[in-house]
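Please review the protein record below. Let me know how this chain folds according to its C-alpha cells.
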Amino acid sequence: MKKIIVSLAMFAALLAGCQKSEIVDPADMVEQVQTQFVALVEDFDAQTKTSMDADRNVMWSSDDHIAIFRGSTLGEEYKLDEAAVGQRYGIFNPVGSVGGDTFFAGTEIPCNIGFYPYSSDFSLVRKGEAYEIRNVKVSSLQKYTPGTFANGAFPMVAYNGDTESNVLEFKNILGVVKLQFKGNAFVRSVKIEGKNDEVLSGAATVTVFTDNQTPAISMLGTADSDKSVVLESDTVIQLSETEATEFHIAVPPVTFSNGFKVTLTDVYGNTKSVESTVENAVLRSTILAMPEIEVNFDYPEEPDFDINLTIDGEVPGVNSQIPQFEKMNINVSYSAADFTPSISLWESSDPDLLKVTAHDGYAEIEALYDGMMTDDEKKSVTITHYAGTKLASKTIDITRALPKKVEF
C-alpha cells in the first residue's frame, strides 16, 4: 500500500478564516397532539442532523428515532411519523406501549428530555441544576451521504421544563469539519485525526442544563480508535478535477492544539494525507470549513483509452438479468490496442446480493440472494470495473430462481 504525506503551504492560514457560526431559526410551533411529541431542530449556516435541502434547511429523515425521558429517568422510544419526513419539525409517535399515563414509581423528574438518535442503553442522572445522559456513543465510523449526514451521525438533545408540553426544541451537540477535495482519485474513505491525541469518538456523557445553557459533551474514550473518525462511502466517490466534492464529518467540540491530519484512501488502497500545523477549534453547532484542496494520486501514466464491458446476449439499453443462484461472465476490453492497465479491480455495489470475482479479461458474477421473489420482481446491482483513473459499469437485475428439473 502506498502512503504519501503532503504538506500544504498556507493550509492553516486559509483554514483559520473559514469557521462559520450557528444560526438558530426554529420552526413555528404546531398544535399539540396527545402521546405525540413535536421535535424542532436547531439550524445553522450549513447543516446538522438529520439531512438538509438545497437551501441548507435542516430536515428530519425517514426512520428517525429519538429517546424521550418523559418525566422519568427511563428513556422511551419514539419514531418519526412518515408524514413529517423532509420537514423542519417532526411529529414523533411512541414505539410499543409507551405514552398515555405511564408512570415509573420513584424515577419521576419535573421535565421532559429528548435525545437523538435513540438508544436503549441511555441512563439519565440528575446533577444539581442539570441532567447527565450517560452511555452515549459517538461513532468512529460515519457513512458518507452526498451533501448531508447519514442518519444518526449528528446527535442532538432537547430540554422542556413543562411536562404538560409535548414540544421539544433540539440543540446540536457536535460540530462539523467540512472537507473539500478535487483531483483524480476514486475515494473510498476519509479519516480525520488530531495531532495531539484529541479524543473524537467513543463513549461520552452529555449534560443538558435546566437554565437554557447550551448542552455539553464529555468524551470518555481512551483507546487509539477513539482518536479518529472515518467517513466511509458504500460506493466509490470519483473526485472532479474542476469542482470540489464536500465531505462532512461530525466531531465533538474540540481544540486541535497542533492542527489535524486528513487521510484519503482510494479504491485501490492507496493513501494520501493533508494536514494543518496550527491550532484549530471546532465549536458546537458550527462548521470548520476547510478550503478547497486538489489531491492527486500518483497513478501510472497510461495512453488514452476507453473501457468496454459486454455480456453475451445483452440487449442495448436493457439491464442484463441473472436468475438467483446462477453465474455469468462480464467481458472487459480496452480501446487502446494491446493495452492492459497497470492497476484495475472489479466491485459490486452489493456483494451480499451479487458477488464479483476478477479473472484475466473478464469477471464472473454470482447471484447470492436467497430470498423469496415473485415472477416479476427484480433486484438491481451495479458491477463496476476500475482501471487507473477510469471506470465503466453494468447494472444487472437479479430475478427469481429458474425452476429445476427433478427426475424420479
Summary: The two ends are 56 Å apart (CA to CA). The longest helix spans residues 11-16. Residues 108 and 328 are 62 Å apart (CA to CA).
